[in-house]
Amino acid sequence: MVPSGDQHAYPAGPFITVYARLVAEGLIDDRESRGLSEGELEEVSRDQGAPLDPEYADFLRCMVAGSGRTLAGETVFHPAVLGIRAGAEAMCTESGIDCDLSRALFVASHQGYIYYCVDLADGAVHCLTEDSAVPMRVAGSFSAFLFDFVKSG
Fold first, then answer.
1. CA dist., res. 42 & res. 76, Å (int)
2. Is-cis flag, bond preceding 11, omega within 30?
3. CB-based burial label for 148 (10 Å; 0-12, 13-18, 19+)
4. Which end of the chain is more exposed for a tag (fewer CB within 10 A), N or C?
5. In terms of Cα–Cα distance, which of 46, 53, 42, 28 is closest to 105?
6. Which sign does the torsion angle of CA 132, 138, 141, 144 carry?
7. 3-state secondary structure at position 148
């Protein structure tokens, strides 16, 4: 079931298609999803020091303020997502990982040693761990990443 327009204002595009699939499969309870205001989106962008990927921005608008138990325990929701870039940069420095993060938009973390970022050049999502030599591509887009991330959790 596609979320009803009277509950939320959803942007058109790839994210809403994935979101509707997750709702239909019972992996997300649409009644518990809350998004961010435009001011809060700007706060996330400032914290990242980068523009927001359009699909990630739609995720922020729809469900990053919370979605019940979905993705519980992961650093993906606001305000916990603030500072995620600084955490990833610190991990890289501490682990001696030499990689260019200038085009990276960090979107999720698992316990401070696994980070996921969108490459702003092509929209692909990469995983970076304390054992990484280089970031590993895990999905072609944020929406594809989110679908797999929620289904595996």
1. 16
2. no
3. middle
4. N
5. 53
6. negative
7. helix
Token pair recorded at residue 65: 């303020």
Domain spans, the chain: 14-152
Quick check: 3 pLDDT over 70? Answer: no
CB 83 within 8 A of CB 49: no
Q: Is 57 exposed, middle or buried (0-12, 13-18, 19+ CB in 10 A)?
A: buried
Asked whether 95 and 130 are in contact (CB, 8 A), the reply is yes
CA-nearest of 74, 140, 80 to 113 is 74
Residue pLDDT, tens place only, 80-134 = 999 999 999 999 999 988 888 999 999 999 999 999 999 999 999 999 999 988 8
